[in-house]
Amino acid sequence: MNSMYPRSVPRSILFAGIAAWASFACPAIADAASAHPIANPCKLLTQAEISVALGMKFGAGELTHPGLPRCRFLTASQDEVFIDVVDPGMFDAYAHGATPMAGIGDKALWAHDRFSSDVYIVKGGNMVTLGLPRSVSRMTPALANLAKLVASRM
What we know:
Layout: H1 11-25, H2 27-31, H3 47-54, E1 62-64, E2 70-74, E3 80-86, H4 91-94, E4 99-100, E5 107-112, E6 117-123, E7 126-132, H5 141-153
Antiparallel strand pairs: 1-2, 2-3, 3-7, 4-5, 5-6, 6-7
Helix pairs in contact: 3-5
């Protein structure tokens, strides 16, 4: 495989490192953020909305990583849905191998591999990653509606 990154590096870890580097090395990207940044991603979805869309019972969202806001929703068996607020300048880095999703925010992508299933949404100068359990291997109408709901609240 002719790749700069080993295949064993999960996309979420790889891009988190790139995002951290970009925010340090390119402060202008951070300044380009919306005048209304998302301080609490837990306000973008409810546990009931996630539970219905995925057919699993999730607990209430928990705000973690205050410096880099993340909201986690967990099932009793530790399946996780998370919403991360990320640098919108990173959207193009996520596009490789991802599928564009029309009609969601300003732009959106669906990506699934053996490590993760994610929806990347940009709207109004903000970007979030909606991280789904690895077992979610395809985009369904219920998941697309969940992503539209997130975008409507950004």
